[in-house]
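BUG-347 | component: ligand-complex export | severity: low

The export step for zinc ion jobs runs without errors, but we want the raw record kept on the ticket for reference. Input record follows.
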Amino acid sequence: MTHTRRLMAVHAHPDDESSKGAATTARYAAEGHEVLVVSCTGGERGDILNPAFGTEPKTLDEMKQIRRTEMANAANALGVSQHWLGFVDSGLPEGDPLPPLPQGSFAAGNMRDEIAALVAVVRQFQPHVMTTYDPMGGYPHPDHVRAHQVALGAFLAAGDPAAFPDAGPPWSVLKLYYNHDFSLARSMTLHEALREANHPSPFGEWIERREQWDIVERPVTTRIDVADYQSQRDTALLAHASQIDPEGFFFAVPREIERDVWPWEEYELAASRVPTHLPETDLFAGIDPHAADTELQSRLTESAHVAGYEDLVPGDLLADLIQGRTHAQSPWGIEGSSSPDDAEMEE
Ligand SMILES: [Zn+2]
């Protein structure tokens, strides 16, 4: 007998699940697996990015309500379940120098509490595979960087009975992936195909901006064929009507060209507790489809290798966070904060 598997996609804001790995989640859901999107924040500080959307909401709460409705429609389009982790959007700090992060926001919050919240969801949903962003957040938004840290923290801690004992019985997630749908390789391939077709390309500016941000191209280990699920991704994107302009960047590539030259979504296997062979074409590769959960959990290797974390957080910060010995550090300052109990303040 083959068993259904569970996939958890950890994202920073509502709409991220529709622009990163969306068609993959639609595909696994369509194939009968359970898929849960976790949105760390409510997207309260998002700007209205669709000129046709109409009136700008006046309060964070109004924005939150709009985005709840949009998210429900997007999850429906993808055929997935969705959970709000309950933290508040930090907004994208812009300017030089960067303004401080709003107090009480996700990226300025206590990382240990945030990891504890996600550990509880992991232990309840019991995913075999988890996806999130790379250590740079995929792009430099403080909530995306924090989502990476919290997802990685939960991946490491959820299987440890000594960590967060009040958050439910331990569950070891077998594989952790980073989404790579904004790679330079993809942008350049599409850019080239559009030029050959004499179609305007939106990627010139994007490629330049990406170079300005000095984003390192990460390795791709796993490529999922999603040609048949890109239209569900599009419906999900459009469900985020306040955020996604149907005339804008996300819809600038004619879909037949996209399907021809880039019918994939790509991932980097960051950590695995089961043996697997790279490159892969399936996020569940290496997970015995006939083994029951209890058997899989007992077969785990202790050699889970976690890549990239030391680039961002030095030393044993994560172990310290799990043990509650220290508090979150943030590369961004935090509004009105000088308490060592909060986060580190940048001068
Ligand atoms: Zn986001």
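Assignee comment: Attached the raw record above. The two ends are 59 Å apart (CA to CA).
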